[in-house]
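Suppose a colleague, Dr. K., hands you the sequence of a protein chain of 930 amino acids and asks what its three-dimensional shape might be. Before reaching for any lab equipment, you can write down a predicted structure in token form. Begin with the sequence itself:
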Amino acid sequence: MLVRIWHISLYLFLVFTFALAIFCYGFFPLSFSPSTKSNITDLPGSLDNVQLNTKSYKPRNSRAVLMVIDALRTDFVSQKNNMPFLNQLIKDGRACQYQLQVHPPTVTMPRIKAMTSGAIPSFLDVILNLGSPRVKLDTFLYQMLQLQRRMVFYGDNTWTNMFPNYFSRKGENVDSLYVNDFYEGDQNITNQMRIEFNNYDWKMMILHFLGLDHIGHVEGPFSDKVPGKLKEMDSVIEEIYEAMKIWDEKYHSKSLLVITGDHGMRDAGGHGGSTHPETRVPLVVLGNNCSNSADNFLQIDVAPTFAVLMGVPIPYSSIGSLINPILNHIPPLDRLHAIYYNTKRLIEKSKVFYGNELSEQDFFIQYKEAKLLHSMYLNDQDDMNLLQQAMGKYNTASRNLSSLLIKHYIRYDIPSIVIGIILGLVTTGLATMLCMIPYEIEQIEFQPKPERLMFLLIAGVGGNCYFSALDGIETDILRYSFISNLLFTLISQCIAIHWSLLESIVTLLSIRKMANIFKLPGCLLVFGCIVHMLSLASSSFIEEEHQTWYYFNNSWFLLITLIEFRKMNRTIRQIGDSKSNEVLLSHCKWERVQFCVSTGLFFFGHILLRRWNQTGDKWQHVPDVGDWFGKEDNKFWLSLILFFGLCYLLFSIARFTGCLTIILSLTACMLIYYYRVMIGSVSFWSVVLPKHDFCIYFFWITLMEIYLIALLPRVYRAVKRQTEPKDSQLLINFLCVILLISAFIHKPHNVILVGAIVSSSGFLVQRINNIAKSKAENMLLKTVAHFWLGKMFYFYQGNSNNLATVDLNAGYVGLSSFNFALVGLFLTLNTFNGQILSFLMLVYHLARGIAQNPIIKSAAIEKREPIVKQYLVKVLGLLIMVPLTFYLLVVALMRNHIFVWTVFSPKIIYDCFYTVMFFIQFIVISCIFY
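The predicted structure, expressed as tokens, is then:
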């Protein structure tokens, strides 16, 4: 049977996405910990035949308040002017401050899970952060619930999503992800907290304040709003402290206040990465006779420490150590029992990894020495030297155990990783061969063989049965189950289809014809793609990937400029030698002058845009142009650059659309500026505009009108069943809508990037049209060049391979509350704006070029459209698949690298998301344009 090339390309891309999912399943297990729960009977009742008093393990505080200030950095507390009351308590010795190290990803949901369970969350929890699924791990909250210790909560609804039905009373901030709320949500929490001061039926109150985090996302840690927010939190701490005095008198027992942050905040604003400001948070304790310590503790240490303070079993999933300075108020014998209990638990967990070699490990020897000293102290409780030595040995052993368990806690599903990589390699190889088929071929003969399909099906299911019976393989993909058999069935059928496709494609390969396309410009593009792919083996090149794209794009721009300049000089020389037409000669010289001026402005613009938003890791802290515009003193210049950016965008739109669309686009640009003035981002001659949502409604109505201008005529022709040739007007209007939405959600100083990418695309297309010698070469250069252009503008916007650079504020532009669909759509469009716009511009230029100069000149326009589809999914798909396949192989080999979770893993998430997004883009464009 005959099958279209673009159908085959689409199939291969889907299989590659399937292989990517299998790899991610093995590389990012959703849970590292079992759902087993601890029990009060787990408390050790003896020490080497010496009986211990388990009844001494009891609550040490009458009630406790856990105050989580989202994105609280350590230096926020250390600056005395920010929190004067809290700093005075620390100075007077009434409070103790410690430093916690946070493991990446530094986002809220996994950090809450780490604090409450003592386990290291999965890296993929960064994606689940929006959904906040119910926690199945054992936590100290679950243990308190089992012992009927009443808890109340007020704050981020992430807690109530993770722990449903845990709290006797709760007040959720239902718009926790609405980052424009700096004060209202926190004030609601404070009001509810004051009401709870008069209730005496709870044992623990959790407060999670979000205002500081929201300020960080929108304005960064150096915003002038940060000191005021910290003073607000300081006054809340003072209120709780005064209430604690009343509680202590009522219960004749100490109450406890613990203040900490779930994660920090990077210097550029936001969080999610692994920089020092993001991974260091304070832990301040009020109410106990604690002692200060300069040691660094882990955030997972909070869970076992809280469990001991509240007198509940330590969570089964915890691999943290106790923060001993906090436990100073506990009697020495009981404190020794608690640290022995936790260390014994960690020893039991380590047996899984060390087996018979456990007794030879240093931490086990320290544990045995600590037990000996512990038993000696039980016989002579006046010898404080024995107590200190035993505590020290237990502490050293437990800390070493925690470090080792953290390393072993990450369990990869190796078979899934291997299967994903092999399937990805085979699919990528087949896609590469498909690109070597001559461009004029639209269909190939494909003959699937049923006997081959059946053989591979039996082999796949049989192999699954065999491997599932083997012992010692830690994997879920090889378990004998319905899902596993279905998975192997799909894989075996994909291999069978690949096999048949290979036989069909080999006969059509034309390497010589393909090689003829790659002259000097094409060779640079291929060389750049190969070098970029190889650079992904280095963590430094991943952190600074923007440098790779900046270098090769600028080299490519310079090369095609020099080629065209040489071509112009040759033409002028030939005309001058013939002396046949002086008018033509002066015209050519004038064109050369215009070309030089426009090219000079083009390069100057890109030099400026390169410094527009600092990105990467090495120079992230260096102030950039965007930081300068963000200062309050420079609001006039920010207003001017927004006005210029909108005018530039309008000029870019006017180059390829009609008069009515231009008028509507002008209206939309005016509404964008009005909205920015209304919210105070920019100014308009010091005029204060009323805050009404009508400008937002009018904006969306205007965009709808722009799209309907092109859609309604097509619907009319479809109803009338007219067979008029299709045009690209619907695509053009859709492109206009996306451009205007991009300008709407961008930061004001970044609006200029929207027009810049349109102009850059036009510059590239004009140069390629002048230097490409064949239509096939023309299309190939345009496709690869636009792929590079999208990557470059991705980094121009300030993005990187660090999760912290995602601008959450863009998801809430024009919204007054959290809407998952709209926020997700806006965040995607803003984050990957460069790739999305470059893709749309490529579609527009390919369609326009084929309509004017088709490869198959005798074909009607309806017959030429599949060529655009074929090019998009075949060439762009290959540009995505080849480096990503290589990168997956690198990551699999470097899975034990020190930067695997801080550098390599975030890029996998970005690339996987972009792969799925490309497929969605292609489907949307196919539905709109064809």
